Automatic annotation (TrEMBL):
This is Carbon-nitrogen hydrolase. Residues 291-312 have a biased composition (Pro residues). Residues 323-335 have a biased composition (Polar residues). Pfam families: CN_hydrolase (PF00795). Gene3D superfamilies: Carbon-nitrogen hydrolase (3.60.110.10). Keywords: Hydrolase. It comes from Staphylotrichum tortipilum. GO terms for molecular function: protein-N-terminal asparagine amidohydrolase activity; protein-N-terminal glutamine amidohydrolase activity. Residues 284-335 are annotated as: Disordered. Residues 1-283 form the CN hydrolase domain. The keyword Hydrolase applies. GO terms for biological process: protein catabolic process.
């Protein structure tokens, strides 16, 4: 399968220029490579930016599924390159047919197939504290669906990978077990994952992946690794980069494979680069990672965004124990 992650730096509320930024990344790619894609994944809230302070702040950027600017862009790219496209967007639900009803807003991701048809619309289940300022939890559970040309797909958004509200046990592994229950061969995570480091410190090595973040993502897939299955499960982490105020995003978009209890890295981007990661999972991976040790409840925590920065007033901020792991990853930055 030929997979691409579009990692870039959208700005809050700057939708039209964000579209141009994404187009500029695609324009650097070989058109023949784009035409050979099976799947293109974009980050969480790809064209709106992420760090909104309130519902009023994000209101001008809200879209209805299948008819907003994110939908139109994704549909156009899907048709142009005959590939599936996954894009994160802020969803506004039309509840007029259910009146009287309260408005509904979700942090969502649309899935288009190569014919330009919507084949999935997933609403984020495990919200980050920034999401809670405007969005509801999706009530239908994590996404699973058999999609032609892709297979059995499991889809999540960013902190869906975390324990629920950081209150569930570490080893509940809600999303990890969902992957197994869905019998997924393809897992897609659209992300806006942050670091607690100050932006100026974090950005000193822009071309290097943030291995702490990548290791954490892999640790949260422990049920899939420990299932020791013969069939490979391909996992796509598409994250954004850049900064929004004091928030610095970790980039490090990656495609990995899990087979026979071993993690293979097909490709990974640097933490602060705007680029298109393109991999072909029919070719040998770049490297292999050591299998994570078994977890015990409370033994690890994410570098971020399991909890907001210490200056943020949020009830979860002090509830995440420090992380430790013997998992090793040594991928090289590649396109």
């Amino acid at each position: 399968m030929r997979i691409a992650c579009l990692q870039f730096d959208p700005r809050v509320g700057d939708v039209h220029n964000n579209l141009d930024r994404a187009d500029a990344v695609l324009a650097k790619a070989d058109p023949a490579d784009l035409d050979g894609l099976d799947l293109l994944v974009l980050p969480e809230l790809a064209f709106t930016g992420y760090n909104f302070a309130s519902l009023q702040h994000i209101a001008p950027a809200l879209e209805q599924a299948g008819s907003g600017i994110s939908s139109l862009w994704a549909q156009n790219i899907a048709l142009k390159h005959d590939c599936a496209v996954v894009v994160g967007y802020p969803e506004k639900v039309d509840v007029s047919a259910q009146w009287p009803a309260s408005p509904e807003y979700y942090n969502s991701a649309l899935v288009y197939n190569g014919d330009g048809d919507v084949v999935g619309n997933y609403r984020k289940s495990f919200l980050y504290y920034t999401d809670e300022t405007w969005a509801l939890e999706g009530g239908a559970g994590f996404f699973k669906k058999s999609i032609p040309a892709l297979g059995n797909v499991a889809l999540g958004i960013c902190t869906d990978l975390n324990p629920y509200k950081l209150e569930a046990p570490w080893d509940a592994f809600e999303f990890g077990f969902h992957i197994i229950e869905a019998q997924a061969n393809l897992v897609i995570l659209s992300m806006a994952w942050q670091t607690h480091q100050h932006p100026s410190e974090f950005g000193r090595t822009p071309e290097e992946p943030d291995l702490d973040t990548l290791v954490y993502w892999v640790q949260r897939l422990e049920p899939v690794i420990c299932a020791n299955k013969e069939e490979e499960v391909v996992v796509v982490f598409c994250n954004r980069t850049g900064t929004e105020g004091e928030a610095a995003y970790t980039g490090t978009s990656a495609v990995i494979g899990i087979k026979h209890g071993t993690v293979f890295v097909y490709g990974v981007l640097g933490r602060s680069v705007n680029d298109l990661l393109m991999v072909d999972t029919s070719l040998p991976p770049q490297t292999r990672a050591a299998q994570p040790p078994p977890s015990s409840p409370g033994s690890r925590s994410p570098p971020s965004p399991a909890a907001p920065p210490p200056t943020a007033a949020h009830p979860h901020a002090s509830k995440s124990p420090r992380a430790h792991s013997s998992t090793t990853l040594a991928p090289s930055t590649a396109r």
